[in-house]
Amino acid sequence: MSPPYLLPLNNTVELPEKTRAALDSIEQQFDLPTKKLEEIVEQMLWEFGKGLSEQPTKETKDTFMPMIPTYLQHIPSGKETGTFLALDLGGTNLRVCEVTLLGDSKWTMRQQKYKVSQALKMGEVAALFDYIANSVDQFLTEIGTTGDPNEKLYLGFTFSFPVAQTALAKGTLINWTKGFECKNAVGKDVAQLLQDALDRKHIHVKCSALVNDTAGTLMAAAYERGDCLCGGIFGTGTNGAYVEDVAKITKESKTKEELEQAKKDGLDKMVVNTEWGAFDNERVVMPFTIFDSRVDRISINPRKQAFEKMISGMYLGEVTRNVVLHLVDAQVIFKGFSSKSLNAHYGLDTAIMSALEAFSLPNSDSAADPIASIRKCITKDLGIADELVSDADCVAVARVSEIVGTRGCRLSACALAATIKQTGNDKSDKEVKFGLDGSLVEFYPRFDQRVKDALRELLGEDVVKRVVIDLAKDGSGVGAALCAQAAMAMEAKAKH
Ligand code: ADP
Ligand code: MG
Predict the structure, then answer these.
(1) Domain coordinates of the chain in residue numbers?
(2) What's the confidence (pLDDT) of residue 1?
(3) What's in the keyword line of the UniProt record (predicted)?
(4) Which residues have a Cβ under 8 Å from the Cβ of 17 and sit 6 or more positions away?
(5) Ligand 1 centre and the CA of 313: distance in Å?
């Protein structure tokens, strides 16, 4: 069994036999013993290898992760300087930033957000990109730039949709997600669409890098803290990018001479976007509970993003909701009654799990009276009538949250362990840095500790001692600017 992070709570309240038995059963279904974690890491390494050596086809695309080469070959040292633009499209707002790299691991940023209307999300793609170019124009007019007015400004474009990348500033849209449905976009090069729109308006800006947010996170972490192996996101979804040997990306088929030249030029590494959220879509190794199957079955993308659905913010709360409902239906908690929000699809936000478990943190306001703080979540956030909630129910709900969340953290650790092994860092004596971003990393209580505990089981204390996990925020701003800087540096190198 995994270590019980909320253990003190279990001892404060005597649980009825029925509650204890129900919790034991849930615990068993969600348990990931060390041996299982090891199998998962092995399978992940197998998928890494497949993805690096084979282009996915229609038939094979769900059997391994895509492992997309980003063509990003310049990892920042912290000494980079210059002024760059960064664009971020993929959420509710379009963000335009001007980032100045100061060269001492520090930077300054000015930014502006622009609303992307429903009409733009559903209309012609040219209209969307005209709007983006207009926003850049407006930003430069209203906020201005400190860059050299005689030189073209380099821009890094964080485009958080699935893209088949073929060069640092070239990639075609595979499909839209997250409510975007623009016409005439799929199959087009999105960097070119942006450049055309900028050129139509005679804006002196060059789109020089197309950036995945994981790669941006890695770049930002490397700039701020030096050498970084992997950038990861544990937010709405989960994904990671890491620094791989060019020689191992055999689907890009380079000759021996080319590899030797790359080494001479110092370009023998490349950032690879794993798309690890899609790990084990074929269900080879991960133990799926009936709760996972239910979450998957009624999701908008059944049988896709299998790993993500056990780990990320969009789904953890939904898995927890299904388990809590099961306890209600089995008459174990709340005297068998539910509520409107507990009945609603996605009615239990992952943020509620953080609130339920907040008392477990040292220095937490709720540490003194955990039951009262859990009760508040259950009645206020989940809308269960106070008279239906016993103290034992409070323990049960918090424990369910912990069980589901701990499994998520332990699986997250598998992705980190696979990256460490893939790059031979389990055998080195170097510090191994991860730059991670997203609400789970930032807000989920004891995320770090749970991940590190699982890493320790997998790799041993000697390796874990060398692992540094940093919160690396704003990969889509600073990170994208660093990608634009990398494009400039690589162009300069190519000229020589
Ligand atoms: P994105 O990945 O889109 O950049 P975030 O990193 O902000 O987004 O993560 C948003 C996700 O995190 C949502 O699914 C939300 O349910 C979840 N979330 C928001 N706040 C918290 C919190 N305090 N604890 C855990 N999860 C949270
Ligand atoms: Mg984010």
Answers:
(1) 68-225+475-485
(2) 41
(3) ATP-binding, Glycolysis, Kinase, Nucleotide-binding, Transferase
(4) none
(5) 5
Ligand with an atom nearest the CA of residue 409: 1
Q: What are phi and psi of 166, to 5 degrees?
A: -125, -10
Q: Is the CB of 177 under 6 A from ligand 1?
A: no
CA-to-CA distance for 371 and 360, rounded, in angstroms?
Answer: 11
Give yes or no for residue 57 having a pLDDT over 70: yes
pLDDT value at 494 more than 80: no
pLDDT-wise least confident of 58-62, 74-78, 141-145, 317-321: 141-145
Helix (H) or strand (E) holding 240: strand 238-245
Cα 71 to Cα 165, 167, 208, 270: the distances in Å are 8, 6, 12, 6
Ligand positioned closest to the Cα atom of 217: 2
CA distance 410 to 416: 10
Nearest to 327 by CA among 381, 387, 401: 401
Cα distance between residue 206 and residue 183, in whole Å: 24
Mean pLDDT of 110-117: 94
Nearest-CA residue for ligand 1 atom 5 is 235
**Average pLDDT of the segment spanning 427-446:** 96
The dotted CATH code for 68-225+475-485 is: 3.30.420.40
Identify the nearest ligand to the CA of 401 by its number.
1
Q: Is the CB of 354 under 6 A from ligand 1?
A: yes
291 lines ligand 1 (CB under 6 A): no
